[in-house]
């Protein structure tokens, strides 16, 4: 059996390596540079577990070959897994263009009995919409199999941390996919009752996180109001196992959690809690900058933003809070700098349009805003600057002496 995997990104590449340990895999991507790197056993995923060793192993065995020729891959595989992005357009609505273009090629090259698996996170009804668009006289199987995983431990998540959820358009489809995932996932495979059930379970990850972080943001605002410590409150509150108060943040980043709640908004009215959660998150960068301004006179100050990644210990900056901070700070009379150990000086300056400053030169700035909780930032010696705003509430404030410490709700 040959599996083609369309989309060799953060998820698609580890997934290809994982399947290539058991099957022949054709990895497909429109990005020719990525295709070439994969075929040469070179990984573009920074810090992903088991990389680049696992990639080199499956390339050497001949079990994984990458191509930019979508037609070839579609024609020469029995199973076609799609894991290209589904993003939001300018109106914050789902943009199916990438997935539609892949499905169009697959439809034209289907063989009798082929299995199509959608792995990209879908709006409710999105998989059925794709199924109905496939025009062919061949009999084929169709499954939605969302991925419950996150960098930098994709393979571990997909093979042993969580059960694989699958939903088939019919029993034959589900049974076929079950057999394949069962050879991969040690934790097990769960068949759910419909495509839409699987879609909503997956979407709930983002909705649950977004809404709960918004609640934490509100609790943090109360802490600021009454001069309380959010971390102390959270720690004690969460001692009861039924409770899980999340952490507040400057802005939820990445292309998953802030995106998924939008996939259901059209079905909810204006009073929707989910909608409110999105709004609260959107207002947080301004809330944080205002909080700094209440204590610190920012005029002519030099400010260093620590962390361009949206998430700790990975190189990924889509929807990163650093960008929101920079936008807001540009309205103040401040000089803005940025540093992130995962990005070069050139990458930082090109992406942010602000100056790079090495952490070694920390004393050259007046204040620091922590936008990402990379391990490297945990034990910085902040003495000699005026203030630090801990946008992740992860520093030990007792250890920070002689300078002003501010956090969200701290
Ligand atoms: N990143 C995560 O943590 C995560 C977790 C669970 C699920 N997902 C799902 O996986 C999807 C992909 O995420 P990712 O992080 O791997 O994205 P990514 O942006 O890292 O990679 C996407 C890849 O798809 C390729 N691509 C785009 N259009 C294509 C096309 N028409 N044909 C072939 N290749 C194409 C791109 O060149 C890129 O290499 C997400 O949209 C989401 O639905 C992501």
β-strand percent reads 15-25%
Q: Can you tell me the CATH topology of the largest domain?
A: Rossmann fold
Identify the overall geometry: globular
Count up the domains.
2
The counted number of beta strands is 16
Distance between the termini: 56 Å
**Associated small molecules:** nicotinamide-adenine-dinucleotide
Helix-strand pattern: EHEHHEHEEEHEHEHEHEHHHEHEHEEEE
CATH homologous superfamily placement of the largest domain: NAD(P)-binding Rossmann-like Domain
Question: What's the Cα radius of gyration?
Answer: 23 Å
Named CATH architecture of the largest domain: 3-Layer(aba) Sandwich
Mean pLDDT: 96
Largest sheet properties = 8 strands, mixed
Proportion of residues in helical segments: 25-40%
Uncertain runs are: none
> What is the spatial order of strands in the main beta sheet?
3-2-1-4-7-8-9-10
The CATH class of the largest domain is identified as Alpha Beta
Number of distinct helices: 13
């Amino acid at each position: 059996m040959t599996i083609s995997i369309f989309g060799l990104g953060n998820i698609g590449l580890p997934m290809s390596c994982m399947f290539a340990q058991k099957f022949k895999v054709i990895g497909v991507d429109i990005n020719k540079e990525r295709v070439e790197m994969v075929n040469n056993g070179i990984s573009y995923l920074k810090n992903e577990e088991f990389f680049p060793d696992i990639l080199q192993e499956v390339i050497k065995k001949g079990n994984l070959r990458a191509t930019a020729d979508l037609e070839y891959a579609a024609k020469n595989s029995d199973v076609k897994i799609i894991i290209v992005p589904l993003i939001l357009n300018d109106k914050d609505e789902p943009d199916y263009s990438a997935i539609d273009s892949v499905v169009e090629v697959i439809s034209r090259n289907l063989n009798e009995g082929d299995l199509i698996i959608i792995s990209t996170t879908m709006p409710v009804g999105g998989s059925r919409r794709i199924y109905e668009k496939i025009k062919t006289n061949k009999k084929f199987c169709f499954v939605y199999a969302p991925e419950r995983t996150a960098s930098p431990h994709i393979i571990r998540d997909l093979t042993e941390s969580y059960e694989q959820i699958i939903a088939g358009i019919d029993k034959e489809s589900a049974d076929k996919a079950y057999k394949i995932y069962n050879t991969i996932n040690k934790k097990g495979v769960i068949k759910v009752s419909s495509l839409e059930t699987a879609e909503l379970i997956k979407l709930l990850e983002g909705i649950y996180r977004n809404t709960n972080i918004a609640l934490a943001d509100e609790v943090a605002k109360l802490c600021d109001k009454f001069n309380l410590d959010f971390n102390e409150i959270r720690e004690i509150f969460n001692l009861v196992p039924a409770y899980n108060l999340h952490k507040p943040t400057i802005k939820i980043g990445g292309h998953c959690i802030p995106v998924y709640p939008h996939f259901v908004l059209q079905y909810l009215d204006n009073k929707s809690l989910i909608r409110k959660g999105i709004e609260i998150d959107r207002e947080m960068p301004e809330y944080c900058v205002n909080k700094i301004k209440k204590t610190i006179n920012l005029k002519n100050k030099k400010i260093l933003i620590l962390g361009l990644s949206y998430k700790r210990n990975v190189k990924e900056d889509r929807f990163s809070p650093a960008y929101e901070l920079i936008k807001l700070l540009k309205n103040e009379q401040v000089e803005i700098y940025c540093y992130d150990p995962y990005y070069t000086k050139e990458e930082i300056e090109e992406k942010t349009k602000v100056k790079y400053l090495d952490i070694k030169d920390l004393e050259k700035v007046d204040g620091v805003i922590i936008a990402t909780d990379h391990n490297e930032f945990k034990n910085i010696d902040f003495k000699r600057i005026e203030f630090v705003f801990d946008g992740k509430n992860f520093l030990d404030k007792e250890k920070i002496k002689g300078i002003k410490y501010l956090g969200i709700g701290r």
